[in-house]
Amino acid sequence: MKQFESFVLDTGNQCLVHDGTPIELAPKPFAVLRYLVENPGRLITHDELLDALWPETYVQPQVLRTYMLELRKVLGDDAGQPRFIQTLPKRGYRFVAAVTEQAAAAQPSGAKQAESPLPAAAIVGRDDELARLHVEREQVAGGQRRTVFIQGESGIGKTALVDAFCSQSSDAGLTGIARGQCVQGLRLTEPYYPVTEALNQLCAGPDGEAACRVLARLAPAWLAHGHPTDVAVQERTLGDLCAALEELAAEKPLILIFEDLHWADDCTLHLISALARRRAPARLMLLSTVGTRRREDHESAMGLKQDLLMRRLCTEIALAPLSRNAVGRLLSRDLGQETLPSGLAAFVYQRSEGNPLFVIAVLENLIAQGILARSKTEGSSIWERREPFPETDAGVPEALAHMIEMEIERLSEEEQRLLEAASLVSVAFPAWAVAAALSQDPVDTEEACDALARRLHFVVRAGQDELPDGSASAFYVFAHGLYREVLYHRQASARRARRHIRIAERLGEMFAGREADVARERALHYEAAGDLERAALTLQAATGMGQASVEVC
Questions:
Q1: Using CA atoms, how far apart are residues 454 and 523, in angstroms rounded to an integer?
Q2: What distance in Å separates the CA atoms of residue 516 and residue 353, rounded to the nearest whole number?
Q3: DSSP state of 430
């Protein structure tokens, strides 16, 4: 473990600790920080970093800028007056803070596990989040109404966290729990669908008779079953239901859960808003999960959340990807063995980037391919690796690819074309390359990429580069490499080759007279297009090797 100022780099747990609180970083930013911290005080060139972290793989240098922006944000560093990472323009970076070895790893205060009546295998890597939910529950038991939003991308484990919390709350005697599911196809046709689902659960539960009596007395219009008519919906008043729910919560604390709030109808959002803003004490907890999907899919829900946050009327729990250690524990849980096959945790962590859904999909794919198989020894069986793990771009698990395809298909044809062209570069892609691939105007293309980054959760604007002619071009990053792989392979081979060649030719035009600077990048595009001769000639012309043998990797 290495310490600099108030930070500790915990290489064993793959996390950064600040004043005793762990800060989990994604795999690549952590690797960049680790390399810098392990080489303090000296210039680390771009090429050295790229070769150390991406051996035998071409990665665009602007990827490093993306990670530096993230690291500076985490460290609270200023590029103009750096305390930690100094940028040496056109050369590289230097870690300028003093680094010392820490002999023993103190247990971070934020890493303390919450006491849980559930087996540890029930949920992995969410101890802190569970502890925060239980703090909210204790406040509810004391008479404070609480509104909590759990936010995260698809597959990050929002529902699993809610399930674990509900199970623990039930075991603790807090049995007033009702859940409603928001459904995308019903948001415009059935107002209050998740609300009526939750009320039906209350009326059918252990305390159903009492719930029905309270509703009949205070909010009779809400007892309608089935698909209410427009007149029945109009007769429902939010004030009546709020009063009924608060009376139910007087008997015992009540947790009301709405899942996938990004698909909620406006009427349901109005109810949550009304309950959150009422001033009277109530042992009532509103718990909602919110995804990070397209902006138009959750604009109203996000607007409600932001307004309540600004007024300090709610709490937000944002779920980050799992750490490498947590991924290992998740694999151990699903495989049913403590000791994992060599290299499995590292491979799955790299491929999944800590998304639990992706972890399971990658694991199932390894088993389906026969790379992992059971081996019987002494009457028991364990999972073992039978073949080497595949290369990084070895394909996306079918179920996961289908999920990503569904997200992509919701986009317009023009948006799909933009993303496909973006995937030709790498996980990070510049707007000029997208424009070149599609033979479009660079300014219009950058505006279109900006619009996509504002709407999509898996594309992020990461900065801008200065081109050789002095102009600037924005660059972007796919949140997950698996999205990039799906977009890359869904293109027809001929179309993909044509676009690769356009990018290579545009690189040659931009760096005219300095072709050697981008020879390797151009050669890789030609090679991806299947034009090995031009790839070899590009490298030969840049190195002056003439007829010498050139290996294109």
A1: 33
A2: 34
A3: E
**Amino acid at position 199, single letter:** L
Nearest to 336 by CA among 374, 299, 306: 374
- How far, in Å, CA of 216 to CA of 201, rounded? 16
CATH 1.10.10.10 in the chain, residue ranges: 2-101
Q: Which residues does 86 contact at the CB level (< 8 Å), separation at least 6?
A: 93, 94, 95, 96
- Strands 254-259 and 284-291 turn out to be parallel
Give pLDDT tens digits for 120-174.
Answer: 336 899 999 999 999 999 999 899 999 999 998 888 999 999 998 988 887 545 5
Cα distances (angstroms) measured from residue 161 to each of 5, 92, 165, 178, 285 = 34, 41, 6, 16, 16
CATH number assigned to the domain covering 126-318: 3.40.50.300
Q: Which residue has the tokens 């999960």?
A: 289
pLDDT one-digit tens code per residue, 166-220: 888 875 455 689 999 998 777 777 888 999 999 988 888 888 888 899 999 998 8
Q: How far is CA 259 from the centre of its chain?
A: 18
Q: Which of 342, 375, 345 lies closest to 363, judged by CA?
A: 345
**Assigned token pair, 265:** 């109808």
Burial class of residue 50 (count of CB atoms within 10 Å of its CB; 0-12, 13-18, 19+): middle
d(CA 521, CA 517): 9
Question: 410: closest CA among 47, 154, 134?
Answer: 154
Q: Using DSSP, state whether 232 is helix, strand or coil.
A: helix
CATH 3.40.50.300 maps onto the chain at 126-318
User: Which structure tokens are listed for 201?
Assistant: 């659960």
CATH architecture of 2-101: Orthogonal Bundle (1.10)
Span between the terminal Cα atoms of the chain, in Å: 36
